[in-house]
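Subgroup meeting minutes
Present: P.N., E.W., G.H.
Scribe: E.W.

1. P.N. recapped why we're keeping a running log of single-chain structure predictions: easier to compare across weeks, and new members can see raw inputs and outputs side by side.
2. G.H. added today's entry (158 aa).
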Amino acid sequence: MEFPERIYTSDEVEKAAELVKKGYKHCLKVDGSQAFVKRVEKALNLVKAAGYYDFLRTYIRNIVEINGVTQLREADAAIWMNEYALQNLVDAASLFIQKANKMKEYLEGRFYSDGVSEGRSVEKRIDFLKKLKKKSDKQEIREECEKLIKSWTETVFL
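Output recorded in log:
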């Protein structure tokens, strides 16, 4: 069975969810300028280092450069991202995981656009940062993880 091109109708969502349950993984593609692609690849290396690359590929098909607001495009299984969201690669990598979790909830048919759902996705982001901090051998990465964990933890409880 082939993964649906769009994931919008209930049949398309059901088909995509069925494939994911069977272990389907996307061949993750990055579309954008050469500089954008290089920055995304660096952030993806952090995702791989933390052991979250398969999770990301399960739910996200494309990461696309745009001149607008960074967002998850559920119908396309894509993250639309502007260049500014890549200034901090650790933060960008954790954003990928947060958006992948939102896509997971979309395919599961869970209500995914409320504050509770966002809280779950932020928790997934924090878990990723903790894992990256533990697995990284670079002091600057561990320090950035700690800073972001503190920031996101405080934000969740406001």
